[in-house]
Design goal:
This protein is of the alpha/beta class. 49% of the residues lie in helices and 16% in strands. Among the domains are: 97 residues, Rossmann fold (3-Layer(aba) Sandwich); 131 residues, Heat Shock Protein 90. The chain has ten helices and twelve strands. The strands form three sheets. It has a five-stranded parallel sheet with strand order 2-1-3-6-7, with helices on both faces. The chain has a five-stranded mixed sheet with strand order 8-9-10-12-11, covered by helices on one side. A hairpin with a 2-residue loop joins strand 9 and strand 10. The chain is elongated and about 125 Å long. The structure holds adenosine-5'-diphosphate and magnesium ion (MG). The site of adenosine-5'-diphosphate has 19 residues, from helix 8, helix 9 and helix 10.
């Protein structure tokens, strides 16, 4: 295909020191019906000036000129932000030189005694150039869109965590406070009544109250577990113990050490990953046993949650309305990590989180404002993993009336 005569005229820069050869090129293009403006220059400074002054659709260049070659001209063109296609239009230069020129990034080579090809070569060079440009633009747009998506995800995740911490705090302060006051009052009534019926009622109210306290503690723990302040190992052990208690399925935890120091953001990502993986196991897997492995070696934190349950086919994982695993993938990305899920129907599932750790990572306590007030702070030296702290609502109190927190 040749340049459409109806399209906009091509702007061509021709580096050529022979007026006769320039005229031949002009003639060849006219014969082929290529609408163009053709500007001739024959020195490097003029070539550079022309490039600076306007945008060209294509550059034609003789190979050998007075005191320089097309390679010198190419050195001026290649660094341009969007260099136009560069076509050698020259006498014989030998195959090796032509191949070298293409390798450098020049678009094509046309021999002067084969001028009839020129229009075709120019058209093709422009098409290839345009396709490359469009592809580069699409890649850049995709990258920008992925960056925006990642920023949005990070923002959403941190909003969710903040919101959770705020809700946990409110449950602690308002509901926890009210329930504690009720407990004092019920105990007071129990102590001061001599009617056995009333005493039984008070006992039953105290029992119901205990359940309500238990429920709000559970909710708070799920929202923002204070155990996280004791480090990732302790938090994962707590999750596993909880899982065992709820399901009766053994969940073994293996860790590289008693304490793994990671930045708070990484810790939260790892914790939520273990939490969702265990929730998935409860919902979908029906396993006989579960294994959690936590390790930091060679600058990489890995968390692996494996079950020997039903497993899944790839299509299940990508269900349109399931956001658990997809959410984990996005979460991992917010701290530079990634998630691998390996599974086959009938052969269990393994969810592996990998996060590169910063070189000199240290445990920074999670910001105080994100913690519910009942959270015990473990500032200072990292403590070894210990038994999960009891989530604490206001303590069971001696029954002094009116002693509300
Ligand atoms: N441990 C597992 N064992 C078997 N199937 C699983 C497991 N984890 C996830 N799946 C399958 O992958 C799907 C997607 O999981 P997920 O994204 O967490 O969504 P959801 O749990 O809300 O269904 C699940 O619906 C389930 O079919
Ligand atoms: Mg899920």
């Amino acid at each position: 295909m040749h340049c459409a005569t109806s399209g906009p005229a091509l702007n061509i820069l021709h580096l050529e020191d022979s007026p006769a050869d320039h005229a031949l090129a002009r003639l060849a293009l006219r014969r082929a019906g290529v609408e163009c403006t053709l500007q001739q220059v024959d020195t490097l400074p003029d070539f550079e000036r022309a490039l600076a002054a306007q945008r060209f659709d294509v550059i034609l260049a003789d190979y050998r000129l007075a005191g320089f070659t097309a390679l010198d001209a190419w050195k001026l063109v290649a660094p341009l932000p969007a260099p136009p296609p560069f076509v050698l239009l020259s006498g014989a230069i030998g195959e090796a030189a032509a191949v070298d020129a293409m390798r450098l990034g020049m678009a094509d080579f046309v021999a002067k005694d084969d001028m009839a090809r020129l229009a075709h070569v120019i058209t093709r060079a422009i098409e290839v150039h345009e396709a490359r440009r469009a592809r580069a633009q699409a890649v850049a747009e995709l990258a920008a869109s992925q960056r925006r998506l990642a920023e949005l995800t990070e923002h959403l995740q941190s909003s969710i965590e903040q919101e959770r911490a705020a809700i946990a705090r409110e449950i602690h302060d308002d509901i926890g406070g009210a329930l504690a006051a009720l407990r004092f009052d019920i105990a007071w009534i129990r102590r001061h009544s001599h009617d056995p019926k009333l005493q039984r009622r008070a006992d039953s109210a105290a029992e119901t109250l205990q359940q309500a306290l238990g429920a709000s503690q559970r909710i708070m723990m799920n929202l923002r577990p204070p155990i996280l302040d004791q480090g990732l190992v302790a938090a994962v052990q707590w999750l596993a113990a909880n899982f065992e208690r709820r399901t009766g399925v053994p969940a073994r935890v293996r860790t590289g050490g008693e304490y793994i120091a990671v930045p708070p953001a990484v810790q939260l990502v790892a914790y939520r990953t273990a939490q969702e993986a265990l929730t998935n196991i409860i919902k979908h897997a029906q396993p006989r046993q579960v294994r959690l492995e936590l390790a930091d070696s060679e600058g990489m934190l890995t968390l692996e949650v494996t079950d020997d349950g039903r497993g899944m086919a790839p299509a299940q994982r990508d269900k349109p309305k399931a956001f658990g695993l997809k959410g984990l993938q996005e979460r991992a990305r917010t701290v530079g990590g990634w998630l691998d899920v390996s599974s086959q129907p009938g052969r269990g599932t393994s969810v592996i989180l990998s996060i590169p750790l910063p070189p000199a990572q240290s445990l920074v306590p999670a910001p105080r404002e994100n913690l519910p007030d009942n959270t015990e702070s473990t500032e200072g030296a990292p403590s070894p993993a210990r038994a999960p702290a009891q989530a604490s609502l206001p303590p069971a109190a001696p029954d002094a009336p009116g002693n509300t927190p």
